[in-house]
Design a protein that fits this description.
The complex is a heterodimer of chains A (567) and B (280). Chain A is of the alpha/beta class. Chain A folds into four domains: 5-244, P-loop containing nucleotide triphosphate hydrolases (Rossmann fold); 248-289 and 537-567, no CATH class; 303-378 and 455-471 and 484-519, Rossmann fold (3-Layer(aba) Sandwich), CATH 3.40.50; 391-454, no CATH class. The two termini of chain A are 47 Å apart. Chain B has helices at residues 18-21, 24-40, 44-60, 69-89, 93-98, 115-141, 144-153, 158-187, 198-228, 248-271; strands at 103-108, 111-114. A two-stranded antiparallel sheet of chain B has the order 1-2. In chain B, strand 1 (103-108) and strand 2 form a beta hairpin. The radius of gyration of chain B is 24 Å and the shape is flat. Residues 1-8 of chain B have low confidence and may be disordered. Classes of the chains: A alpha/beta (567), B mainly alpha (280). Chains A and B meet through helix 3, helix 4, helix 5, helix 14 and helix 15 of A and helix 8 and helix 9 of B.
């Protein structure tokens, strides 16, 4: 059978780059296969996707050698438009790719551009919407009233209206919370079964994609394909760790307990994992011999929010009667569904919004009436996208901005900025333009620009969004080092690994209420509460249950401690 | 955009009236033709007809006056300003046009109130009263996503027409981003309040606009790719999900408004110019 996609000795180099982004790619994918292409940032996986959908070579210029064929035809002989009739691409930015003013219009976009008469559009739009679970009732809804998951479903419907053969997903989980991500993976699987189309998923969050069967996993590293094998075989080896990818936690736990993961364990999916009685006993035994995870010591109270009430400017939502305290030097995760109130809570603490009633105290002092700028001397706020914060061309000036605005004298500014850059590992770059930095380094610049004000607390909005495992670890280890210096850290996040590994405590918001304040490990071992917070339970919870361990949360905590001690 | 529209009063209001039922394209042509004829002629009788027509349309389309308060106030203000400025700069324009001079009284210096000037400015006000409600009606009774389709139907290139949709789609996103960036910058001491010098405020604006522009350029790039991957720009034309077929009433409305342009030209010939002159 002729493969539907085939790369032969394919090499591609972007015009502005010195090194090829793809080198010696040999890959063939057959009709109806479901393939996951994984790899760290910069591994070339997105470039590979762009070669399949035709953005390369038509929109991103560069030089290519070898061949890349879709449906037996070399892509350079086709156009983006011709390829889009064969390959449907769902991009990672759920909001950015929604170009219509209503869901129906967005789904019809491709039909419009292909000049389909209006009368024929509506039935096709309805059929496509039905396939992705967008009801008829949503067709007239504007994107402002749709959640990220719903927008993604609209985008999927928007490519399914065409009779395409290949569905290409470019990091479909990147902008979704874990619970919605889980539904997306299930939906992709359903579409594949209903339509028997070829499915290609580009993603570095391996464990989440493996929630449903995948035929093959292709791993990329530095522009090359370093592994191409069935899922179960890959998981039994050690290739993932070697290439900066996160191994599913339950498999790591098996290794730590001394079990060599093998194909007969059916490793690919936690719900199909098959362990012998001996294996289960080994894991249980390993756990029972671990020292119990240390309880946190109580420390000085830093921030206290009491009986806070807030009505949104649009008046349709509220935060009700929120009370909690944060102690000095802790790292806490604020979690919950989008729109549950977690970002608003952060904004209220920073003074961006004014509360209706209640009190916010810092070191026992009421700061409810303080201005944004005065609070900023104690409370730093780092936005999700560093490009939203950086406003100076040079790194030094960017970090100095807050101090300059405080009217501090030049000598002190220089000394404080240099000291902060030192802590953030940016000192060698102090005279560089910001544009020369990577995304992760820019993130550090924004953290530095907040730290320079010497705040007692910093609040970070989704600090690890869109980061691969290596960059994620880099940022989080850096925050942990800050925490060790006495800085208190609040994280607004959907990232379950982050919570498990770095934030021992979680505040769960739901529908404008603070519904739980508990250890993260306990939260992620509670399926009901996890669902409420748009998270999902960790696979360690299932492993613990499988091995008949009574306290899955304690098991999870011990696992994390063990892993930390090991590295 | 049934929900999430802006609150300026210039957004679509979903109702089922004869005006709402007209297609966007015929409404656009009607507004253009009526405005054009009101612009051409200074004939008071014809202007009065257009004003009456446009007020009838206003009532028929059931534009809720309460929601229009802000925008109506603004338009009245513009109208008043325009009248005053016209008088201040050209107090003798009526006299020049009509060729006679019938003083009523003298105010100060070169400023006299003349019958000719009053008549001229009365006609000018009629023109505004004819055109402004029409524009309001168009915005309030046409679904935003039908804008682009209507523009394209009257001959505007679809790539340009679609930019209207894109603007409506992404302006709220950019506004939200502006607000968020501005909050984060205020935390770093950027002061945009009236308490600081204008130069400080300008510098503050720059530190908000810079990141806003950078993130917007990123977004435009992503949108362009997304659109191209779904065949935007493939053909010379495209069809529209939101377009509706013309009915008899659409042709009727277009013909009627086109006739008013003809009437404006005919009256010009009869009156021997754009102006109807009652003073000779």
């Amino acid at each position: 059978m002729q493969p539907i996609i085939s790369f032969e000795n394919f090499t591609f180099q972007y015009r502005a780059q010195k090194e090829p982004s793809l080198a010696d790619i040999n890959l063939s994918i057959n009709q109806g296969e479901k393939v996951l292409i994984a790899g760290a940032s910069g591994s070339g996986k997105s470039t590979l996707a762009n070669c399949i959908n035709g953005l390369i070579p038509f929109n991103h210029k560069g030089t290519a050698s070898g061949s890349c064929k879709v449906n037996g035809v070399d892509t350079s002989k086709l156009s983006v438009f011709e390829l889009s009739k064969i390959v449907g691409t769902v991009l990672q930015d759920t909001d950015g790719q929604f170009v219509g003013l209503t869901a129906g219009e967005d789904i019809a976009f491709s039909l419009e551009n292909n000049c389909l008469p209006k009368e024929e559009m509506l039935p096709q739009v309805k059929t496509a919407a039905c396939k992705t679970g967008i009801g008829d009732a949503f067709l007239d809804t504007s994107p402002f009233d749709l959640s990220g998951g719903q927008k993604q479903r609209v985008s999927m419907a928007g490519i399914l209206v065409d009779d395409i053969q290949i569905l290409l997903f470019d990091e479909p989980l990147a902008s979704l919370d874990p619970s919605t991500g889980k539904n997306t993976i299930a939906l992709i699987d359903k579409i594949r079964h209903d339509t028997s189309k070829t499915v290609i998923i580009i993603e570095h969050r391996l464990e989440d994609v493996l929630y449903r069967d995948v035929d093959r996993v292709v791993i990329m590293h530095d522009g090359r394909i370093v592994s191409d094998m069935p899922t179960a075989k890959l998981l039994s080896g050690s290739l993932l760790r070697e290439h900066g990818l996160r191994e599913p936690l339950y498999i790591s736990a098996m290794r730590y307990a001394g079990i060599a993961p093998a194909e007969e364990h059916k490793l690919a999916r936690i719900d199909q994992l098959t362990l012998s009685q001996g294996d289960k006993a080994t894991i249980k035994n390993w756990y029972q011999n671990l020292p119990p995870a240390e309880a946190e010591q109580n420390q000085q109270e830093l921030l206290r929010v009491s009986n806070l009430n807030f009505t949104y400017p649009s008046k349709d939502r509220t935060l009700q009667n929120i009370s909690f305290t944060i102690t000095r030097g802790e790292m806490t995760a604020i979690v919950g569904t989008n729109g549950a109130g977690k970002s608003t809570m952060a904004k209220l603490i920073c003074g961006f919004e004014q509360l209706d009633s209640g009190k916010i105290e810092l070191f026992g002092q009421d700061i409810t009436e303080e201005t944004i700028f005065n609070r900023a001397k104690h409370i730093g706020y780092v936005m999700q996208n560093p490009n939203q914060m950086i406003c100076k061309p040079m790194i030094f000036d960017e970090v100095a901005l807050g101090l300059v605005n405080q009217g501090i004298d030049e000598a002190e500014i220089k000394q404080r900025v240099e000291a902060t850059l030192e802590i953030c590992g940016l000192h060698p770059f102090r005279n560089w333009p910001v544009s020369a930095l990577s995304y992760g380094q820019k993130k550090r610049v924004t953290i530095a620009s907040v730290l320079v004000m010497n705040p007692e607390i910093i609040i970070l909005d989704e600090p690890t969004a869109g980061q691969d495992y290596r960059h994620y670890t880099e940022i989080m280890e850096f925050l942990k080092a800050l925490q060790a210096k006495g800085v208190t850290v609040l994280l607004i996040t959907h990232d379950m690994h982050l919570m498990l590994e770095y934030a021992p405590r979680a505040l769960v918001f739901s529908g404008g209420n603070l519904v739980a304040d508990l250890p993260s490990a306990t939260l992620l071992c509670d399926p009901v509460l996890s669902e409420k917070a748009s998270l999902k339970e960790t696979s360690l919870f299932h492993l613990a249950a499988e091995c008949e361990i009574d306290d899955p949360a304690a098991f999870t905590r011990c696992f994390i401690e063990y892993e930390r001690a090991k590295s | 955009m049934r929900a999430g529209g802006t609150k300026t009063g210039l957004s679509y209001i979903d109702k089922n009236t004869p005006v709402h039922r007209l297609t966007g394209a015929s409404k656009l042509l009607m507004v253009l033709f009526l405005s054009l004829s009101a612009m051409i002629t200074f004939d008071t009788r014809l202007l009065a007809i257009i004003v009456v027509l446009s007020f009838i349309l206003f009532v028929v389309s059931r534009v809720p006056l309460r929601e229009m308060k802000m925008i109506a106030g603004f338009l009245v203000f513009i109208l008043a300003m325009n009248t005053i400025i016209t008088y201040l700069f050209a107090p003798e324009e009526g006299v020049r046009i009509y060729g006679t001079r019938t003083e009523i009284f003298h105010i100060i210096g070169r400023y006299y109130i003349t019958q000719e000037q009053l008549f001229y400015q009365f006609n000018q006000t009629l023109k505004y009263l004819a055109i402004l409600p029409l524009a309001l009606i168009f915005f309030v009774t046409t679904e935003p996503s039908e804008f682009a389709a209507s523009l394209n139907k009257i001959g505007v290139n679809y790539k340009i027409a679609y930019s209207v949709t894109l603007a409506l789609r992404y302006i709220p996103t950019v506004m939200r981003e502006y607000r968020e960036i501005s909050q984060a910058q205020q935390a770093r001491g950027v002061d945009l309040s009236k308490n600081v010098k204008i130069t400080t405020r300008v510098r503050g604006m720059v530190s908000i606009m810079f990141p806003l522009i950078i993130t917007s350029i990123d977004r435009i790039d992503r949108i362009a790719n997304a659109m191209e991957l779904r065949s935007f720009g493939k053909n010379k034309t495209r069809t529209w999900y939101q377009s509706r077929p013309f009915k008899k009433v659409d042709y009727f409305v277009i013909t009627l408004s086109a006739l008013l342009i003809v009437a404006a030209i005919v009256m010009g010939i009869i009156n021997g110019g754009r102006f109807l002159n009652p003073f000779v």
